Amino acid sequence: MFLHMKFFILCFLGLVFGEVNAVRFYKFEVVNSAHTRLCTKKTILTVNGQFPGPTVYARRGDLVTFDIINRSDQNITIHWHGVKMRRYPWSDGTDYVTQCPIQPGKSFTQRMILSDEEGTLWWHAHSAWSRNSVHGAIVILPPARETYPFPKPHAHVPIIIGEWWNSMIEIVYKGFLVGGTDPQTSNAFLINGQPGDLYPCSKQDTYKLQVESGKRYLIKLINGVMDNIMFFKIGNHNFTVVGTDGAYTKPLRTDYVAISPGQTLDLLLEANQPPSHYYMAARIYATGGEFVTIPATGIIEYVGNYTPPPSPLLPSFPQVNDSAASIGFTDQLKSPGSNVDVPKKVDETFFYTLSVNQFPCTNPSCSGSTRLLASVNNVTLILPKTVDILTAYYRGIRGIYTPDFPNFPASFFNYTQGTPLKEESRSEFGTAVRILEYNTTVEVVFQGTNLGGGVEHPMHLHGYSFYVVGSGLGNYDRIRDPPNYNLVDPPLMENIAVPMNGWTAIRFKANNPGVWYMHCHFERHVSWGMAMVFVVKDGERPNEKMLPPPPDMPRCGGEVSSPPLVIGEPDTTMGKREDAE
Ligand SMILES: *[C@@H]1O[C@H](CO)[C@@H](O)[C@H](O)[C@H]1NC(C)=O
Ligand SMILES: *[C@@H]1O[C@H](CO)[C@@H](O)[C@H](O)[C@H]1NC(C)=O
Ligand SMILES: *[C@@H]1O[C@H](CO)[C@@H](O)[C@H](O)[C@H]1NC(C)=O
Ligand SMILES: *[C@@H]1O[C@H](CO)[C@@H](O)[C@H](O)[C@H]1NC(C)=O
Ligand SMILES: *[C@@H]1O[C@H](CO)[C@@H](O)[C@H](O)[C@H]1NC(C)=O
Ligand SMILES: *[C@@H]1O[C@H](CO)[C@@H](O)[C@H](O)[C@H]1NC(C)=O
Ligand SMILES: CC(=O)N[C@H]1CO[C@H](CO)[C@@H](O)[C@@H]1O
Ligand SMILES: [Cu+2]
Fold this sequence. Notes:
With 581 residues, the protein is mostly beta strands. Helix content is 9%, strand content 37%. GO terms for molecular function: copper ion binding; hydroquinone:oxygen oxidoreductase activity.
């Protein structure tokens, strides 16, 4: 009976989703489980009790079904980071953008619809700050009869750079929401869940990768940390970058990488050094604030008979604040071919300023006299609470969002001027979306601002990959800069770090109907409202339209009859909103 049911579901999925290579099933139970790092034991939210969570294996074009069962005491959503989810935003897993959260005791069957993605992506929670421990790798292999555009690797090795707080992340998050400043810093960075030799109480559990001389390993590097770009190196070994964000790149020989939160990199490593033990290590890149500078380490152990050194040699890293090293790496990423299908003509050009804003704060819970929020084009996103934006759009529920997200900032100012403009740095609140006609070609220029002090912003778009056609320091100049765009071999990404007090231009074709979140992947910034939403309308043909929602979409509870959100209403979860009015 049960088998029949599964067979029926397979046929049904095959019909609805069209041609798929294979259908795979995973069961994800979201549970609290106890884990100890740095001699501190605490309960963390996990999938199936694992930290990091299970690796998902699939081939390009597969349909992967997940039974998500929430056996925890927290609301949860799971997002398939970098998967375009063609025509099916219902499983994108962004709370209050594409779904209501899966509440404790509830479950939701999500479908990860792979299309052209190949390489490395990852899945993570999108609700509150649960993604700190609720995450795992997605390894997407070529279809069975196809090969790699590089020598076949002997093994795939997911390496997730993560982060550990000795305090419960829920408490760190609550403190951050009311405090109005940067969150409490983490206590350690991690490689595959372990801090490594250089941290106290950690040596015996250090992650180890055994390699055989003469073989090739494909390292699937994922930055799962909350708020920082990271440098990554391997002792004594150079390697070749062959992919990023689920797409291949021109092979790039290097001895280090910089990787943004959310980003992935595929690194081809040849075990061609004298048999020994070597470190792989991840260290923070940061230009200000407090942070842990101790690298997280793992050990590459050659198999064979030899006497390893008492301790491997730590590779030398760029300076913690070496922006040139961070930008310099990212700028070298290119698409493998030339004349890629980057839109040459654009229908819509948007200019989006990215700012950290300051509001006065008199509330005693604030750490200072001001509190921080963040914005895109001076709009701080307030998510609805009674229904998600996708459902509101699909069912025509009014009053949930406004279709007036600005194409340009309301006023032009020297975005990157040296002295932060403290007096002028308030933003306004809104649940504004930008509606796009199907097939529109879009250019977005992100402009980092120095309001409240400049910092990088790793911007992430759901539902699409985009071409990164240009970037630079200072203010974008619409006369000077476009002629220098790379329209020949720009990298295809879904996550790009906009340089500190600089700009980045991306292009994509809006041919995936749905409701798609775009946000900074620094958790503190997205929690402060540095996010917006694109609504891409259906095209004309059946295969250009959104698929219908599944029957088990999580509900917020009585959403349709609940009162609509009034834009600008005080939002208690943001702490100090009242003071801002
Ligand atoms: C790695 O590359 C650097 C330059 O980028 C070079 O100086 C070094 O010798 C190379 N190391 C190995 C082991 O090939
Ligand atoms: C990086 O930090 C060092 C030491 O604090 C400082 O001397 C240097 O000027 C900084 N470099 C940059 C590029 O900010
Ligand atoms: C903007 O500010 C930067 C940094 O302070 C300065 O170098 C530049 O000249 C200013 N641009 C304009 C147009 O005032
Ligand atoms: C942003 O909006 C706030 C509130 O309306 C306003 O005070 C501020 O001047 C605006 N800032 C910019 C740069 O447009
Ligand atoms: C969208 O673009 C595709 C490919 O260029 C084209 O085949 C299709 O007709 C277009 N659809 C619409 C509604 O414009
Ligand atoms: C969990 O989600 C429900 C539905 O949106 C909401 O009513 C409730 O307040 C949420 N709980 C927490 C702790 O955020
Ligand atoms: C159905 C189910 O798994 N419910 C669980 C939800 O989470 C709470 C708190 O962890 C558990 O007590 C329930 O058993
Ligand atoms: Cu940011």
